[in-house]
DNA sequence: CGAATAAACAGGGAAAATCCCCTTTCCTTA
DNA sequence: TAAGGAAAGGGGATTTTCCCTGTTTATTCG
């Protein structure tokens, strides 16, 4: 049995209503207790620097204004690596997940949270130091293990934006406008990706993106 | 309570091993009993014409050589409309399902059958005269109710083949070769579909096909 | 620090593929 | 026989794709 310790949790979330119900939920779990809220990353910084009572775990929403989840995660791992960050997000595309994990996040939860899952996540975080949901594990497997042909892909920010836009009915020109780049640059992305991914045309790109969960329908 | 009648079932299936276990399963259900097997559609015809003891229900595999599920279903509804046909198939794409339903099939089961589901299907078939699984209902909802813009789509055989091939990296020319049609005819399909579906390019077509389950990854 | 190297970005030009608006032919069927 | 659909096609505009070159911006390293 686990000892009767109290684990503390901080919540950083823009959607205060959601955060409030999250707090209630967490406080209903044995051994866990929310000690503070923060509206965004900046707010969190202040809270942490002002208090000397640091939470063991922080729930971090990715989609926030002012200072988003990525920045916040970076700051946290840099300044308080002992705090375990559990990322919450609507997005389940591979790249977002990986981006957060690369920034030192210890767990990743999709936001349609079931109480038991959240409880499991918190427990595993404080016991094992990490939590990986089914989806995240799959993603890791997907992205960090080579594909059928032994390739590992790691897309840059711009490439990813391009891929996502290319999976729509937009014309390359229109994509160029949206990304504020020259059509020629876009063409460069396209060409490079076609070569790297060994695909023949845009349809190939769409299929690739779907298989890799870079986009969803 | 249902009366103690005995419902008879015929199985038409190419995979004899599967059919055998299916028979065992069915015979284990109360009130249901398998009275014959058939390897394919032709075989079934003979069996039916030779015997005067017709089954109440026939389990029909779609993927068969010689005389496939579609033809067989057609023949059955034409010559023995009183027999309830339950289609079994690996494919769960909308069009295949619809195609079978249009041929008078009374139920449709995906082949990863759970005993309880099969039992339910048989019971509903003999009691209500039809059975619709979750997936089939969804499909019907999907295809037979208008979409967001009030459109109903019903694709012809060739169109569907074209759509599926267009969702690959094949070139239109290559598609034309595969379908043994002139590239211009293919172009006609493309044009017509783009107009009907209000899409701008091939990517749009791929997305459409995916949303409608016409193809799967 | 400055030079070397790499990478992102942009362009020209041309071939191929796609997209679009039309007509004609043939066949089925009402 | 008229109507309608499927197949085939002409011709041209546009887009996509491809290859090669140059410029600017980071980054690394001697």
UniProtKB/TrEMBL annotation, chains A, B:
Coiled coil region boundaries: none
Residue ranges of domain Response regulatory in the record: 8-126
Highest taxon of the lineage: Bacteria
Pfam families assigned: GerE (PF00196), Response_reg (PF00072)
CDD domains: REC_NarL-like
GO molecular function: DNA binding
4-aspartylphosphate: residues carrying this PTM: 61
GO BP field: phosphorelay signal transduction system; regulation of DNA-templated transcription
Keyword vocabulary terms for this entry: DNA-binding, Phosphoprotein, Transcription, Transcription regulation
PANTHER family reported in the protein's UniProt record: NITRATE_NITRITE RESPONSE REGULATOR PROTEIN NARP, TWO-COMPONENT RESPONSE REGULATOR
Name the UniProt record assigns to this protein: Ligand-binding protein SH3
Species this protein is from: Aequorivita aquimaris
């Amino acid at each position: 049995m686990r000892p009767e310790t109290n684990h503390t949790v901080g919540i950083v979330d823009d959607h205060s209503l959601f955060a409030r119900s999250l707090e209630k939920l967490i406080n209903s779990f044995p051994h866990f207790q929310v000690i503070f809220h923060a509206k965004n990353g900046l707010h969190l910084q202040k809270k942490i620097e002002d208090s000397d009572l640091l939470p063991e775990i922080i729930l971090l929403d990715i989609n926030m204004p002012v200072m988003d989840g990525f920045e916040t995660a970076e700051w946290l791992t840099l300044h308080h690596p002992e705090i375990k960050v559990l990322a919450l997000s609507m997005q389940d595309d591979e790249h977002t997940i990986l981006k957060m994990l690369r920034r030192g996040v210890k767990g990743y939860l999709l936001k349609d949270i079931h109480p038991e899952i959240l409880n499991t996540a918190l427990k595993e975080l404080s016991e094992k130091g990490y939590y990986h949901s089914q989806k995240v594990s799959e993603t890791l497997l997907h992205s960090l293990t080579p594909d059928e042909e032994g390739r590992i892909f790691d897309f840059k920010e711009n490439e990813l934006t391009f891929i996502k836009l290319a999976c729509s009915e937009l014309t390359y020109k229109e994509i160029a406008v949206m990304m504020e780049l020259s059509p020629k640059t876009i063409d460069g992305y396209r060409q490079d990706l076609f070569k790297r991914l060994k695909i023949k045309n845009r349809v190939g790109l769409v299929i690739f993106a779907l298989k890799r969960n870079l986009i969803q329908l």
